[in-house]
Amino acid sequence: MKPRMITLVILTLFFLIVDYYVFQAVLTVSQNWSTPWKYLFRYGFWVPTLISIVVLLGWFVGDPYKWSATVKTWVITYLFAIYFSKLFAVIVLFAEDMSRGVRQVIAYFTKYSDAPVSGAETITRSEFLSKTALAAAAIPFGTMVYGIISGAHDYRVRRETVRLPNLPKAFDGLKIAQLSDIHSGSFFNKTAVKGGVEMALAEKPDVIFFTGDLVNNEASEVKDYIDVFNKLKAPMGIYSVTGNHDYGDYHRWPNLKVKQQNFRDLIEAHRLLGFNLLMNENHFLELGGEKIAVIGIENWGGRGFAKYGKLDEAYRGTEEAATKLLLSHDPSHWDAQVIRGYNDIDLTFSGHTHGFQFGVEIGNFKWSPSQYAYEQWAGLYQKGSQYLYVNRGFGYLGYPGRIGMPPEITILELKRA
Predict the structure, then answer these.
(1) pTM score, whole prediction
(2) Do 240 and 141 share a domain, yes or no?
(3) How far apart are CA 96 and CA 130, in angstroms?
(4) pLDDT of residue 112
(5) Which of 300, 291, 307 is nearest to 327 (CA)?
(6) What is the 3-state secondary structure (H, E, C) of 100-167?
(7) Is pLDDT of 359 > 90?
């Protein structure tokens, strides 16, 4: 049997086992319901299972590479949301089964019985735990649905002030807007995206930085959003860099020539948007006869991500600049190269992590699974006299939503120390 078919069989059996186990709770909860509702609930429970198996057949028997990125995203999200949620029910039910087994062993050897006294309970233990199990599944499922409907486009403006001792006087109070990780191929609500762009414009930034991942894989994904993001304007311009997804490295191309053309199209998209794309190069911002340097590199990723960036090339020519600002998509680059060999780069702007699109932030407390993969994963960081700001991302990837980690528009003001 081919590996793809083995995977199909394993996943199908997994889905069926999970569903059959959870179905026992469905049977228990609905046992006293009226006939039409009882059967509607019981038979309806298996509808998502049937859909899941049909989807799996289409995925493994057919060619998922022919599916659009949007279709693949929603398929994966559907399967994950359904079965990740059901696993919570399985945990509750399994814990009860283990507990029941222990009680039966004890009863066998001690003649003890924990059976309820007649009339003492209005709900049986089995029914209570079955309801608890179904609630345990409903909560994460509902949360994920809410994260899609509300969280995906719940744009937030986050403000920071960074004080730099070498900042030229003319740039004191410079307002920078940062966007990152647009991932235009994932969007499903163009009106909401327009609202996010309008929020950024309302801040009236002096300059705008975009720190990579304009698309998921293909340059064509941004086509329908050119007329949205080209509305971004700033007196001192918009500067951008590439992220790991912009190169098409995660897509199966017919040949290398097509992939290279896709990247050229991606570069052209930046031009159409009015973004000044910095490909291992720099640009000077001038104000009142004074200058600061904006350095931009191609993606330089840690943790196995591609390293196209060449900081030495991008840095060259900026040695005498009083203040240097670096745009580098992956925050891992800061520890790996920037603070090790370029201690006069005052402030680095990154993105990439998305804050894993899931987390908790209350006051000064913040937590996300992202922190186990990245030392710097969201917000402002400082080591010595150097700073790093990691944007939580404007868009989303994979799961088309956000839970507790809303999309971000950063407004960062530079002040003289």
Answers:
(1) 0.87
(2) no
(3) 9
(4) 58
(5) 300
(6) HHHHHHHHHHHCCCCCCCCCCCCCCHHHHHHHHHHHHHHHHHHHHHHHHHCHHHCCEEEEEEEEECCC
(7) yes
400 neighbors 147 (Cβ within 8 angstroms): no
Please tell me what DSSP assigns to residue 223. G
Mean pLDDT confidence for 225-240: 97
Residues 136 and 196 in one domain: no
| CA angle centred on 124, ends 122 and 125, rounded to 5° | 130
Number of domains in the chain: 2
Check: CB of residue 354 under 8 Å from CB of residue 404.
Answer: no
Q: Which residue matches tokens 């222990």?
A: 102
Rounded to the nearest 10 degrees, what angle do helices 3-29 and 35-45 cross at?
160
Q: Which amino acid is at 25?
A: A
Domain that holds residue 106: 3-149
pLDDT for res 113: 55
pLDDT value for 121:
52
47 - beta bridge partners? none
Same domain, 70 and 218: no
Same domain, 198 and 289: yes
Summary mean pLDDT of the chain: 93
Q: What's the length of the chain? A: 417
CA-CA distance, 175 to 232, in Å (whole number)? 15
Same-domain pairing of 219 and 286: yes
Q: What does the pLDDT look like over 146-184, one tens digit per residue?
A: 999 999 999 999 999 999 999 999 999 999 999 999 999
Q: Which residues pair with 73 in a beta bridge?
A: none
pLDDT at 193 > cutoff 60: yes
Here the tokens at position 143 are: 């949360």
CA distances from 91 to 80, 133, 221, 360 (A): 17, 8, 40, 24
Distance of CA 158 to the CA centre of its chain: 17
The CATH number assigned to the domain holding 213 equals 3.60.21.10
